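Hey, can you fold this one?
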Amino acid sequence: MIKIGDFARLTQTSVRSLRHYDQLTVFQPMYVNDETGHRYYSVEQLPRLHRIKALQNLGLSLKEIGRLLNENITTEAIRGMLLLKQAEARQTLEDLELRLSQVETYLDLIDNEGTLPNLHVVVKSIEPWYIASRQQTISDASEIQGVFLDLHEQLTLAGIVHHEAVGIFHTQGLPEDHTYTKLPYHIADDELECAFRIDKDLSHLSNKYPFTLRTLPAVKQVASVVYQGEYIARGEGSLALYNWAGQHNYQFAYPIREVYIRINDRNLQHPQNLVEIQFPIVAK
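Sure. Predicted structure:
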């Protein structure tokens, strides 16, 4: 029998880890002295400990490892667990590659221009959103404010608590006359959905009101910037995202979203407004 301290040195495993394995019944001592509580191990246990460490290196949790070693799990179930870890490892690798690419871009800007960009691109995932919305023909950006104000009044009359406004652009691709203010999306016909975020799913009530109650689906990855200024000049934000996507080998998916974080005096053209522009992205 080998005392826990000696076994820890032999296996290059901390005493704390061995005790933790014991608590989880993943790897238990061969013998425990009832009087002293001292744990003792055997060299015959080394293969099991090595197997535990090998499975940990694959990314499996101790709970998952305990199931594998202590329960009669089918080969197909084990394969499913490893496929999940494979997917998680690939996602981690993609995240690290994206971070490396962003660092290199910032270094290039510092080397070539001696400064950092005013607009910083952030990549994140978006959870499902509950919204109340209206989609109607809008021929000019100046009409958007009126649609939001009307929708706000309708929601207030209906007693539906609502929060920040959201513009959802269903435009597919670039317009032929794409300009600075339209890159890489524009308003055409009824392709803009004006919405407000709400607290819960009220889709079952949609037939009661002159607006739509629905859920915006989750988005795995969006590239976003927060732009401060007049709504009409927000092309600077979309252009920053357009250039970023080209540098990092991404293409845009749809619909694109604008979240109106702060609108001063209910005026979309106020210079202190804050708008977050979100472009769903996929690797090319």
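The chain has three domains: 2-70, 74-115, 122-283. Let me know if you want another pass with a different chain boundary.
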